[in-house]
Write a structure and sequence with these properties.
The chain is of the alpha/beta class. It has helices at about 15-25, 75-90, 110-115, 130-145, 165-180, 210-225, 255-265, 285, 320-335; strands spanning about 5-10, 35-40, 45-50, 50-55, 55-60, 70, 90-95, 125, 150-155, 230-235, 240-250, 270, 295-300, 305-315. It contains nine helices and 14 strands. It is globular.
């Protein structure tokens, strides 16, 4: 891989695309050249990167000549249509959609967990679901210490997970309610302002949503743990950009809270914020804009013999999307 690669960002004008550009800058990623790609509707717009304006080009199947790495964040349909064309042009794709996450030929990667899997790619690498990535930042170090068997979890997911339009919808609804105006709904089936919706993604025949099955399906792949089980309820909350997850985890080995805390304090990419007596615990507001996730409320689970309960928060647009994708690109540079 070129040490100063030509990078393309697909979906550059979206919420995650913007964060990808900021993350590349913040982490001093050695971008040799930059190409910004988006739909015909967004083509012609300009975005600033490292002090220089770049014009967004229309995404086509001929867009990838001489591009080394393409960071995709434009939805699963776009990824399925255009990622193979990118690979044919010699580009390595890091895809943020769900299109390839369960493809056995495509590594699904959280670099702090399974970064070595990047080496087995065949042209496409997948970014996990945002809730999965944030949860595993806390769960995987505990798995290494105690070997997790199953979890029961509830997520509290920010509207940023539905894209820039959903962020705008929450802002608009708050203003409408404050002004005693009728509330308009476009992104969600119900009002999201001052409300919570136990409905993220589409419902499946088993009664779970697609989002709720991702922690189990993706967690098995990322942790290389085929027997891992997860029962999850995903909830959309009126928070702008950080997800939180309440996790009750059962382990094979006897758990020790102090050892668990020590393990998490040594883990990469996560900070322990755990002093309830002083009202210190992870908050969506605290992690917004931060690379690291936060974990707290660590305690013995009173319903499991070998159980721990904890609360983890992380920025959906960063560790849940853009940051993780750029970290995967950083792993590619090491090959």
């Amino acid at each position: 891989m070129n040490s100063s690669p030509h990078i393309a960002v697909v979906g550059a004008t979206g919420a995650v695309g913007i964060e990808m550009l900021e993350t590349l800058t913040k982490r001093d990623f050695p971008v040799g050249e930059l190409t910004l790609l988006a739909s015909a509707r967004s083509a012609g717009k300009t975005l600033s990167f490292r002090g220089r304006e770049h014009t967004v080009k229309e995404l086509t199947k001929d867009s990838f000549k001489d591009i080394d790495i393409a960071l995709f964040s434009a939805g699963g349909g776009i990824s399925k249509e255009f990622a193979p064309a990118a690979v044919d042009a010699g580009t390595v794709v890091v895809d943020n959609s769900s299109a390839f996450r369960l493809d056995p030929k495509v590594p699904l990667v959280v670099p702090e967990v399974n970064g070595a899997d990047v080496a087995s790619h065949e042209g496409i690498l997948a970014n996990p679901n945002c809730t999965t990535a944030i949860t595993l930042m806390a769960l995987y170090p505990l798995h290494q210490a105690f070997h997790v068997t199953r979890v029961f979890a509830s997520s509290y997911q920010a509207v940023s997970g539905s894209g820039a339009q959903a962020i705008g919808e929450l802002r608009t609804q708050v203003q409408q309610i404050n002004n005693n105006e009728p509330v308009t709904k476009e992104v969600y089936p119900h009002q999201i302002a001052f409300n919570v919706l136990p409905h993220v993604d589409v419902f499946l025949d088993n009664g779970y949503t697609k989002e709720e099955m991702k922690l189990e399906n993706e967690g098995q792949r990322i942790m290389h743990h085929a027997d891992f089980k997860a029962s999850v309820t995903c909830v959309r909350v009126p928070v702008y950009r950080a997800h939180s997850i309440a996790v009750s985890a059962e382990f094979e080995r006897a758990v020790d809270v102090e050892k668990a805390r020590a393990v998490l304090e040594q883990a990469e990419g996560i900070d322990v914020i755990d002093d309830p007596a002083e009202n210190r615990y992870p908050l969506p507001l605290s992690v917004s804009g931060k690379d690291n996730c936060e974990v707290g409320r660590i305690r013995r689970d009173c319903a499991f013999e070998n159980g721990l309960s904890f609360w983890v928060s992380g920025d959906q647009l960063l560790k849940g999307a853009a940051l993780n994708a750029v970290q995967i690109a950083e792993e590619l540079l090491k090959l």
